Amino acid sequence: MSWLGTTGLLMVGLAGLALAFVLRRAQVAWPAGRVRQVLGVWLPLALLVPLTVAAVVDEVRKSRLDEQAWLQKAVAYRMGGLPRAMLISYPAGVPLRVLNYVRQEQATRIIRNHINGMSFGATRARALPPGVQREVYVLVLGESLRADHLQINGYPRETTPNLAAAGGQVVSLPDFVSAASITRLAVPPLFTRRLPQTDGAFTPEPSVLKAFKEAGFKTYWLTTQAPFGKNDAGISMVLAQADEVRAVSPEGWRPGVYDSDLLPWIDEVLAKTDEPRQLIVLHTRGSHAQYSLRYAPEQTHFQPAAPSDAAVNPWDAGQVESLRNAYDNSVRATDAFAAQVMQRVARATDSQGQGWLMFVSDHGETLFDGQCGRAGHGFASSPNFHTAAFIWPTPSFARLNGPAMAASRANAPRPADYRVMFHTLLDLAGVSVPVHDPALSLASATYRPATRRLIDAGTGSIIDYDTELPALDCAKK
Hints:
Blueprint: H1 5-26, H2 34-65, H3 67-74, H4 84-88, H5 93-116, E1 123-124, E2 134-142, H6 161-165, E3 171-172, E4 176-177, H7 183-191, H8 208-214, E5 218-223, H9 233-239, E6 244-247, H10 263-270, E7 277-283, H11 320-348, E8 353-361, E9 366-367, E10 375-376, H12 382-385, E11 386-387, E12 389-393, H13 395-400, H14 402-411, E13 416-417, H15 420-429, E14 431-432, E15 453-456, E16 461-464, H16 469-472
Parallel strand pairs: 2-7, 2-8, 4-13, 5-6, 5-7
Antiparallel strand pairs: 1-14, 3-12, 4-11, 8-12, 9-10, 15-16
Helix pairs in contact: 1-2, 2-3, 2-5, 3-5, 7-9, 10-11
């Protein structure tokens, strides 16, 4: 109750006086036992409002007095030490949840201001090839897509017919590992130089979007996921650095939304020919459960597939076939979406332009592999971390940027993880920053695979994917 202070005492006192005044004016006649009920139940409830307001006022005041000190305290986004049972209780937990929300909002504001004041000092690393007047680069952020369910990676089913038809143009990364098996922990390291961190830690650092902006790019974040939410604080810090953010479904994961709904917005952005340099991030729903909700009914290819209007039990082994079929149908939908975006980028840059599309999934998915006995993600299973990733250059980019593409193809089969994204994206776009490490860029001839460390969301431990995860892996045979 350290936050109560003078403000809180004053507001509680005023609330008590107001309650006494109302009761006196009403000349209430109390039945037997009603006094105990009022004092024991309704009076504490009435005091929740002034206590909550007092806490909010005090938190805002403290955050504005010393932002740097508050930054160090607030980046955890948590009510330190308060049991979850207290936070979710009712009605006692109401003021605590309000206070928690205020702390998160204050932390978000302070961290955003802190990041906005930072700079990479980004410049163009190399002159554009003669005749190139437009650059369009697209990063598709997939969802729950595991690498071994891609046809182009040797999967026996036709899950990526469009990518397969592109032949050698697509550079797949079959041994790519994510930072975590849940989105809120996996996405920030893909865009920054951050190492995996738990929910209780956050290192404020600009994302690669800021480097692109400094180099003269207009940046977009188009999403079918919710741009902000209780589980997305770290992600919202990244997308907030884009020049423009649009969400098909700002309210959350409502049914009837497909990744293809982003195509009209993509067309609109690509029609802006007065923007010679564009970076477009597409944050998709991909293959997130419930899988059958990620594709239109007419896209059902593998059957029987778990229906979209029926309850799905991820622990029911009897649903394995229908779950896998629905999952693979969602992969085909991602393949179709990626192909449509690729066609648009190619058209937008076919005359005096160049571009590429890079795809990376936030994490993978388990489908009753090994001894796991369930579908889903967020636990220690190698398919949850072994994610899909690939690079597709436009014909003009491949022709004009031979060394970068040659290095990407040579490095593609080698082990890689989330840390290569920051440096590879900058290399492919020809953007230079002082913190650039060519040993972490797949587009560099000096790339060297490093120890792949990730966070086990179940325990919060940082572990080595190659040496420590096998002992915890429920998917092993």
